Amino acid sequence: MRKSIGRVVLLGFAAVVVGNAIADEPKIVPILEGLAAPMSLAVQPETGTVFLSESGAGKVIRVGADGKAADVITGFPVAPDAEGPDAFGFPVGPLGLAFTGKNVLIVGEGGRPAGEDQLRVFDLPADGSAIAADAMRGGFTLGPIDNAAGEGDFACLAANPTAVFAVGRKDLAKGWIGKCELKEDGSFGPFARFLATKDALPAAGPAGLTIDGHGNLVVGQAGERGDMTDSLLAFFHAKSGKLEASFTTELRDIVGLAYFPPVADNPRRGKLLAVDFASADPARGGLYEIVAKADDKSGSAAKKIIGLTRPTALVFDPAGTLYVTELGAAAEGSPPAGRLLRIEW
């Protein structure tokens, strides 16, 4: 059963959800087009450079200040999408991204059989030259255990100073989030199952993932595919995995979460944004702000900012500029229609 602990807790944990909704209309600036299934975004520490996983092309790219793309890691295996109710719907290669240092990038794989996808650790060359996917420092898997199938399809990652968290999509019965320890010397491991979200929440399918200002793990639980508005927002203790709070959202398929950074004098700082994939009705997909409901202590409301066609991820750079990826609406057999967009207020 969902834990109902009140509006004050939503404010206390998110520190950013309560307040007036974002009112002014943003400007949408296409940065890259024709991408093959852009799935995840990350911003490099110190430089603020945006990195993107182009899953269908089997590579990770970065976007320069001139808006041009450059390869970072190439040659990831790309597999035809698996069948089933939770299939991606396109060929799958590299998925989630997270930095743990200026030149240390974690990439979550997808598309292999259960238990074989890796969480790969890369040391990126300081000169910015591209490397092969096999040139990783190491890789971690989550194989089957007595009460759980093998995990994989690590579509969304989040990191704090002590760990990397990875959403898995293979074991739908449990909705696992894995955790890989980050040690003081910069090494990693072990990578283990940390949190079975389905045991704590009524909705299936963890998807969006971020860390709030208090260090809590914030999870967008997508819910069942379909036109139901069953996505949940949940806050878990990042060390113990204890559920601290959860709230309804009125969204269909949350796949990404991000907080406005604490930019001085920016009235939007601390606001929580989400992208809704809306798989059953892409016309309902978009970028939303999540705000508290004044009359429902266990619920929150989603205020639509812009419409997007099958959005997959969002990230802020340190200056507060928002970047969003979307798959677009290309018909089967047509050229890829994925885009990277910059959202400006």
Describe this entry's structure for a reader:
The protein has helices at residues 7-14, 197-200, and strands at 27-35, 38-43, 50-54, 59-63, 69-74, 94-101, 104-109, 119-123, 131-132, 138-140, 156-160, 163-167, 176-182, 188-196, 206-211, 217-221, 232-236, 243-248, 254-259, 272-276, 286-292, 300-307, 311-316, 322-326, 338-344. With 345 residues, the chain is mainly β. It has one domain (7-344): Neuraminidase, CATH 2.120.10.30. The strands form 6 sheets. A 5-stranded mixed β-sheet has the order 2-3-4-5-9, with no helix packed on it. The protein has a 4-stranded antiparallel β-sheet with strand order 1-25-24-23, with no helix packed on it. The radius of gyration is 18 Å and the shape is globular.
Write the layout of secondary structure elements.
Elements: H1 7-14, E1 27-35, E2 38-43, E3 50-54, E4 59-63, E5 69-74, E6 94-101, E7 104-109, E8 119-123, E9 131-132, E10 138-140, E11 156-160, E12 163-167, E13 176-182, E14 188-196, H2 197-200, E15 206-211, E16 217-221, E17 232-236, E18 243-248, E19 254-259, E20 272-276, E21 286-292, E22 300-307, E23 311-316, E24 322-326, E25 338-344
Parallel strand pairs: 5-9
Antiparallel strand pairs: 1-25, 2-3, 3-4, 4-5, 6-7, 7-8, 8-10, 11-12, 12-13, 13-14, 15-16, 16-17, 17-18, 19-20, 20-21, 21-22, 23-24, 24-25
